[in-house]
Design goal:
Layout lengths: L14 E5 L3 H8 L4 E2 L3 E7 L5 E7 L2
Parallel strand pairs: 1-4
Antiparallel strand pairs: 2-3, 3-4
InterPro entries: Glyas_Bleomycin-R_OHBP_Dase (IPR029068)
């Protein structure tokens, strides 16, 4: 995925949310703990530019 604005410099602190089947697998790959929300089990990562990547598995 490549985030880009068409005019000027891209903003930092953008948030992208990815829904996945098993967030625990990704959490273990990055060595982070999951957090439970009423709608999903999730993690949040930041890329080198400060953009937030939120990854979650919806709760049933």
């Amino acid at each position: 995925m490549f985030l880009l604005e068409h005019e000027g410099v891209p903003r930092h602190d953008t948030l992208v949310y990815h829904r996945v089947r098993d967030v625990d697998v990704i959490a273990s790959e990055f060595g982070v703990k999951t957090k439970d929300a009423p709608w999903a089990r999730k993690i949040e990562l930041r890329d080198p530019d400060g953009n937030r990547l939120r990854i979650g598995t919806p709760t049933e």
